[in-house]
Amino acid sequence: MIKRSTGLYEEFSRKEGTASRATHYCAGCGHGIILKLISEAMADLDIQDDAVFIGPVGCATFCYYYFDCGHISAPHGRASAVATGISRVLPDKPIIAYQGDGDLGAIGFNNAFQAANRGDNFALFFVNNALYAMTGGQMAPTTLAGQVTTTTPFGRDVVKTGYPLKVCEVFETLEAPVFIERVSVADTKRIMQAKKAIRKALEIQKEKKGFAFVEILSPCPNNMRVDPVKAAEAFTEIMEKTFPLGNFRDNSEKDIPMPADVPLKTASEITGGGREGITTKNDPSFKEKKFKFSGFGGQGVLSLGLVVAEAAVSDGRYVSWMPSYGPEQRGGSASCSVIVGGKEIGSPTIDDPDVLVAMNQPSLERFAPSVKEGGTLLYEASVKSGMEFPKGVRVIPFPASAIASENGVPKASNTAFLGAMTALGLLPFGDGNVIDALAESFSPNPKLIEPNKKVFEAARKWVSDNKQ
Ligand code: SF4
After folding, report:
1. Both 169 and 187 in a single domain?
2. Which of these, 167, 148, 107, 159, lies nearest to 238 by C-alpha position?
3. Terminus of the chain with fewer CB atoms < 10 Å: N or C?
4. Side-chain-facing half-sphere of 360: CA atoms under 13 Å
5. Helix and strand counts by DSSP (H, E) for the chain
6. Does 2 fall in a domain?
7. Per-residue pLDDT tens for 363-420?
8. Any ligand 1 atom below 6 A from CB of 221
9. 204 alpha carbon to ligand 1 midpoint, in Å?
10. Domain that holds residue 37
């Protein structure tokens, strides 16, 4: 097609006032040809309005300036992982991922490999130019034996750095991929074959038949330090000895069940809507509440969050609990995020908690600025930080460790904070749920239940005696 493909924008505008028909690729680069082939196939198959294109990091990172379709730019090596996610949330849309050999062959290999092994439902185009191009021509997993690159100035030594990675051959060992082919864009005859393979992969994707993989040998004259003609010749004469062209598999006409077609279920569908004997209430009017608990490892930060989460579950709420901790068992920082909602929770991460419990100085200083306006910050009173607290936040220094020690359980500061939270009305469920969850948390060691209840009550009393 010697005209603009309607799968591409009419003009490429990287900055305001710079619209033109020129791409950023070097003369003789294969990327421009591949983009044109994909865009023509998208337009011919009438999928571009629905298609989501997942771009990589590397020379092809600017695909979003060129393709006239939906676009997501993935972090380095992660285009396949992002495509997996998008193919699951948008199962009816054509999903196209595009990666280079550093991006897919090295950094993101496991993501692509596992997606292929699961038969995830997207088309993956893998551009192999035998080096890391964007960063200046370093050795990639696909670099040929003996090939000179900036990091292998004496040629790739396979004893030290391994053999060229043959991704088609690796994927061919897997059962799930529907289509695997290696093509080249080094000359016109090869471009015509590449066009067919690319089109086939997109047809498979249009019909949502599963994982289709096309590896495309693509000259990089810039890093090969030769002119485009010589680069193309080298690709036909040398590259194909290591990376033979051809179709490795085409199961697109066979009736093979696809692993990725198992319908996804929500958490509540799997659990039947909640714990045994507890029905999770779908209550969109309930105002979601976010809690962050933080301190040192060993202070019971994660357990405190778990008790709150368990109490919310027993009240029939949707709950997420997400811990975060360092590698140390004791003394490293630890925190957990708990969200209590009236409908399914989209993400367990919290940027702006309604309630922050900070049990030590580093966590106070780290998380205090994030507390939402109108929220509450409850922190260990023995911490001296001198920091300025955010405006519009209720700040309460609370002597949790003193209360726990005075009541004979020095390690129960977390229980003291729990008691304070109930007395301050910070938990959106009844005290009975909290006390039951607290007792349940000590069920492996029942002799700790009563001492902790004592700390819990002492903390409540402190709040009622010190109410301002
Ligand atoms: S460096 Fe190589 S791969 Fe990158 S745009 Fe230039 S020729 Fe293409």
Report:
1. yes
2. 148
3. C
4. 15
5. 16, 13
6. no
7. 999 999 999 999 999 999 999 878 899 999 999 999 999 999 999 999 999 999 999 9
8. yes
9. 29
10. 30-261
CB of 96 closer than 8 Å to CB of 122 = yes
CB atoms within 10 A of CB 247: 16
Cβ within 8 Å of residue 37, ≥6 positions away: 185, 191, 194, 195, 198, 199
379 and 245, same domain (yes or no) = no
127 touches ligand 1 (CB under 6 Å) = no
Alpha carbon separation from 421 to 269, 289, 418, 425 (Å, rounded): 32, 13, 5, 6
- What residues are paired with 72 via a beta bridge? 54
pTM over 0.85: no
Q: Are residues 291 and 179 in the same domain?
A: no
Show the tokens assigned to 67.
Answer: 């393709």
**Which residue shows structure tokens 């088609």?**
168
Check if the beta carbon of residue 335 is closer than 8 Å to that of residue 321: no
354, 234: one domain:
no
How big is the chain by its Cα radius of gyration, in Å?
29
Distance (Å, whole) CA 273 – CA 193: 52
| Claim to verify: residue 213 and residue 352 sit in the same structural domain | no
Query: Do 90 and 227 have their domain in common?
Result: yes
Instruction: Look at residue 254 and tell me if it is in a domain.
Output: yes
* H/E stretch holding 19: none
**Average pLDDT value for the chain:** 92
Q: Are residues 198 and 236 in the same domain?
A: yes
Mark whether 257 and 275 lie in a shared domain. Answer: no
Which tokens go with 173?
A: 């060992």
Of 97, 252, 109, residue with least CA distance to 171 = 109
Instruction: Answer whether residue 12 is part of any domain.
Output: no
Give me ligand 1 centre to Cα 52, in Å. Answer: 24
Residue 11 maps to a domain: no
CA angle centred on 53, ends 47 and 59, rounded to 5°: 135
pLDDT interval class at 128 (50, 70, 90): very high
Residue nearest atom 1 in ligand 1 by C-alpha distance: 133
